[in-house]
């Protein structure tokens, strides 16, 4: 009974400590949730004592063991209100204030580290303004080096791969982006056969490119569909409708393991000459970013 009481006190202490530091909670798919109860990880952000004005994001497993340590530089998104920038730069409002935070981009910058839950270092990666740039080293869970790469603007310049015994093996690409089943040509065909040009847009001769974004989960399912650039509310709804119809994608791969990836997809609405039928030919190759 005493052990149970001590455990409850420890968990209560952890909860108080966690909730006192502007904590964010994430489920197994890295999706933000509201409470610790169903979380797989939680994250806190603290001021960087070396680089004044920037922050360090520290993520923990639910067990309390550290998962990652990532230095960040903060910068305002494009078209942010000048009054908001003035509030922040004058020191009147902190970076963690909700009214400011939504206008700030956090870009990894410096040496970012990740660990396995057993405490073994998993990755050590050099970033510059949000992009991998420099050395990249990953480890097997037994501590052996898995991969050593040198990157320039996220592209591998040279690299080596090793098995769990430390023996060098064939070098493979570090990352593979998500893919619609069958590839880009099949994606174009799917869009051209399923997009219906909204009547209000046809009547008003509205055409252009809708930029949609969604997450391709580890299992290939799509979630968090949103519109980054709109040309008309009906066009937005049609883009979301068609993306929601898509089958599961081939998920993104990072070091032979599936990962959740944020994918940006332009969808073009173009009227034909007679303004009756629309060419729903949609999209260039999507721009994607893993996280």
Topology record:
Blueprint lengths: L1 H18 L4 E3 L5 E2 L7 E7 L7 E7 L4 E11 L5 H8 L8 H4 L2 E5 L1 E6 L5 E8 L2 E9 L5 E8 L2 E8 L5 E2 L5 E2 L7 H11 L4 H5 L4 E9 L5 E8 L3 H13 L6 E3 L2 E3 L1 E11 L6 E2 L7 E4 L1
Antiparallel strand pairs: 1-2, 1-3, 3-4, 4-5, 5-6, 5-7, 7-8, 8-9, 9-10, 10-11, 11-12, 13-16, 14-15, 14-18, 16-17, 18-19, 18-20
Task: Write up what this structure looks like.
There is one protein chain. The chain is of the alpha+beta class and 291 residues long. The protein has two domains: 2-171, no CATH class; 184-290, TolA/TonB C-terminal domain, CATH 3.30.2420. The protein contains six helices and 20 strands. The chain has helices spanning 2-19, 82-89, 98-101, 184-194, 199-203, 233-245, and strands at 24-26, 32-33, 41-47, 55-61, 66-76, 104-108, 110-115, 121-128, 131-139, 145-152, 155-162, 168-169, 175-176, 208-216, 222-229, 252-254, 257-259, 261-271, 278-279, 287-290. The strands form three sheets. Strands 1, 2, 3, 4, 5, 6, 7, 8, 9, 10, 11 and 12 form a twelve-stranded antiparallel β-sheet that branches. Strands 14, 15, 18, 19 and 20 form a five-stranded antiparallel β-sheet that branches. A hairpin with a 4-residue loop joins strand 4 and strand 5 (66-76). Residues 1-21 and 275-291 have low confidence and may be disordered.
SSE topology string: HEEEEEHHEEEEEEEEHHEEHEEEEE
The percent range for helix content is: 10-25%
Gyration radius, to the nearest Å? 23 Å
Number of helices: 6
Largest sheet: 12 strands, antiparallel
- General shape: globular
Poorly predicted regions? 1-21, 275-291
Task: Kindly report the average pLDDT value.
Answer: 83
- How far apart the termini lie comes to 43 Å
**Class computed from helices, strands and strand pairing:** alpha+beta
User: How many domains, in number, for the residues?
Assistant: 2
Count of DSSP E strands? 20
User: Approximately how much beta-strand content do the residues carry?
Assistant: 35-45%
């Amino acid at each position: 009974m005493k052990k149970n009481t001590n455990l409850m006190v420890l968990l209560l202490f952890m909860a108080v400590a966690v909730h006192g530091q502007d904590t964010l909670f994430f489920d197994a798919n890295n999706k933000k949730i509201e409470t610790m109860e169903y979380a797989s990880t939680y994250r806190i952000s603290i001021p960087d004592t070396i680089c004044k004005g920037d922050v360090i994001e520290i993520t923990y497993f639910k067990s309390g063991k550290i998962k990652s340590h990532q230095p960040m530089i903060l910068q305002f998104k494009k078209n942010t209100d000048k009054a908001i920038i003035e509030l922040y730069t004058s020191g009147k409002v902190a970076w963690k204030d909700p009214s400011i935070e939504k206008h700030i981009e956090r870009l990894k910058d410096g040496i970012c580290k990740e660990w396995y839950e057993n405490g073994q270092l998993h990755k050590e990666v050099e970033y510059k303004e949000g992009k991998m740039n420099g050395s990249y080293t990953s480890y097997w869970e037994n501590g052996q080096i898995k991969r050593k790469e040198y990157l320039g603007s996220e592209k591998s310049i040279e690299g080596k791969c090793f098995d769990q015994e430390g023996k060098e093996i064939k070098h493979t690409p570090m990352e593979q982006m998500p893919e619609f089943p069958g590839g880009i040509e099949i994606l174009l065909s799917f869009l051209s056969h399923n997009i219906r040009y909204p009547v209000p847009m046809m009547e008003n001769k509205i055409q252009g490119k809708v930029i949609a974004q969604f997450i391709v989960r580890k299992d290939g399912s799509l979630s968090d569909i949103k519109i980054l650039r709109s040309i008309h509310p009906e066009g937005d709804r049609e883009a979301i409708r068609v993306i929601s119809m898509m089958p599961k994608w081939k998920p993104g791969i990072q070091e032979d393991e599936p990962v959740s990836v944020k994918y940006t997809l332009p969808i073009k609405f173009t009227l034909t000459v007679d303004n009756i039928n629309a060419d729903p030919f949609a999209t260039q190759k999507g721009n994607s970013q893993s996280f």
